[in-house]
Amino acid sequence: MGAYILRRLALVIPTLIGIMIVNFTLTQFVPGGPIEQILAQMEGEGNVFQGFAGGGDAGGGANAIGGDDRYQGARGLPPEFIADLEKQFGFDKPPLQRFFEMMWNYLRFDFGESYFRSISVIDLVLEKMPVSITLGLWSTLIAYVVSIPLGVRKAVRDGSKFDSWTSGLIIVAYAIPAFLFAIMLLVLFAGGSYWKIFPLRGLVSDNWEELSLLGQIADYFWHIALPVLATSISGFATLTLLTKNSFLDEIKKQYVVTAKAKGLSERKVLYGHVFRNAMLIVIAGFPAMFIGILFSSSLLIETIFSLDGLGRLGFEAALARDYPVLFGTLYIFGLMGLVIGILSDLMYVLVDPRIDFESRET
User: Fold this and answer.
1) What is the pTM of this model?
2) What mean pLDDT comes out for the span 78-102?
3) What is the mean pLDDT of residues 160-180?
4) Is there a smaller number of Cβ atoms within 10 Å at the N or the C end of the chain?
5) What PANTHER family does the annotation carry (predicted)?
6) Which residues does residue 113 pair with via DSSP β-bridges, in sequence order?
7) Phi-psi bin for 292: left (phi > 0), alpha (psi -120 to 50), beta?
8) Residue-by-residue DSSP string for 257-283
9) pLDDT tens digits for 216-273?
């Protein structure tokens, strides 16, 4: 197992570099870089160049990527001013040099500063991370609490009417996009066209600090109810079917027949023997499911419910061409995903020592 983990760890850096190469290359062909946007704003709206001059030091703009060499919005502006902007943002260097400088800094976890927020990327990510972790963690826990009992019941009553109509509901839930379900919840329960039961936006109320401890807890759950429900719908459907199929596989095995032949009750066989073995794959998949929910739905859900999390941060960075934030968060997310993949394999081994990754062909 140790050799397998070392091989997986050795692949982390090349994989991250490959991810960054692809996205770096794409940004070279995307019009409307940060300098072009600044120049266009200056010509169209007057001088709105606020605080950009200090954003291009070694910790920020010098580590940046992308940008266009031709600025259509720069007509009438002095070439020296444009050259100064390029130097401040690091665009006066060749793309290959910028890429190697960026990767060297990223390997040392130096992500620089945001172009437009005067804050380091790390501090910005740490500031937004609690919101996204809240959605991902609660959505995963709720999916497990609902899906495991439902999956077990479906396995026990396989082929019954209960199994049929619940399967239909699960398929519908899986087919509904999370953002569409979120909009439907807003329309129905957040004052859209019907009932105003839940708040429309935010993680807590404006007077949250003035509330008592119990009031703060109630206010927190009141705000996250709809976002968590919208985020967990697809994970709930997948986990339910996974639980059912895992139980069906175990029920058909010989040790279950032997246990029943010895006179054990069906309940004791189910929860004393089958449950422990069937739940191995479900439990081991917790890290991967959490990271999947965290990444897959955070952007749209956070935007719809006006939650200031990592998904919304990445979306706004892409629109503003804030490359340090965009590439820094991409690197962090990619690293987290790769590490979680390794942790998921370790979870499989911990819950079931019979699994041996060393014997797999690589």
Assistant:
1) 0.69
2) 76
3) 85
4) C
5) INNER MEMBRANE ABC TRANSPORTER (PTHR30465), INNER MEMBRANE ABC TRANSPORTER PERMEASE PROTEIN YEJB (PTHR30465:SF66)
6) 120
7) alpha
8) HHHHHTT--HHHHIIIIIHHHHHHHHH
9) 888 888 888 888 888 887 677 778 888 888 888 888 788 877 877 877 777 777 777 7
Q: For the stretch 311-341, what's the b/e string if a residue is b when 16 or more beta carbons lie within 10 angstroms of its beta carbon? A: bbbbbbbbebbbbbbbbbbbbbbbbebbebb
CA-nearest of 121, 132, 135 to 326 is 121
Structure confidence by residue, pLDDT tens digits, 15-51: 888 888 888 888 777 766 667 766 666 665 443 334 4
Please tell us whether the domain made up of 122-320 is placed in CATH 1.10.3720.10.
Answer: yes
Helix (H) or strand (E) holding 253: none
Chain center to CA of 218: 26
* Strand, helix or coil for residue 287: helix
Determine how many CB atoms are found less than 10 A away from the CB of residue 127. Answer: 14
**Alpha-carbon gap, residue 128 to 203, rounded angstroms:** 12
Percentage, residues of the chain above pLDDT 70: 77
Q: How far is CA 334 from the centre of its chain?
A: 10
Residue tagged 């509901």 (tokens): 169
